[in-house]
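User: Study the shape:
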Amino acid sequence: MYAEQYNPDQIAFEKANNLQNVFVVYQGYFVNPKTSKLDSNIFKKYIDSLIIDKNAVGFAVLDWEGEPFSILKGVKSVSDSKYNSTINDYLEALNYAKFLRPKMKWSFYNFIPNQYPDTTGSQRIFVEKMMPLLKNLDFLTTSLYLFDIRTDETESKILRYLNSNISRSLQLAHELNVPFYPFVWHRYRDTKNVNSKISLSDFRFYVNQILTFTNNNRSVNGIIWWNSASYIYRMRNSNPNYEEEYRNIQDPKKYQKDMFISYLNVIKDLPKLDNK
């Protein structure tokens, strides 16, 4: 599955090739920035424009990050009442999403939250605290974006990061009896090369590791590839890497489509993607 809803060329390619799209709803379309609470009016208006069919089926993800997300994953310490209030805010958004499009499968981006470079025993404490929310998700979406460029020195760190987070999410998915579709991206999230493209060969290594990893005879159900090329293009003036990438591009739409197809072909050539 892949996530892109603002690029007409890619949407047309998706339909022509029977690809499955995941709808991603960013927090600006359902969270009031002043109150950090659900804004049901904005949410309904956006969903009605994004997923027109009220009986639509498929997958959708709410992307709510910032301070509330830091609270839930234990990065920001707060009182129990504040924590429970945050859980309830997420549940309210999730339940409203299910009310608006009841036949869709709904989740939040990066749930359960990833640990970098690997997981620790203490993380289970936060998972237990999040359980009132987690048990209402229709699938898990732990983000497995890469932070390190693959080198001889970093490869073991990358594998430890991927394998430990996949193992943890697979175990929880088993406990909750839901599928696990981790997020992947063809760009890095490290600080030096932020959002620069991953080489095709390294992308193959990265995604193949996710698709072939097993733990207690369990494996991922598929992947969600975040491929919002239109977003990258809109943000090019705010990121030096984006700006440099598009500096000499005469036809951005063709460039984006060619890039999409090249990475898609890598994914299609890997195992375990039948009907994913």
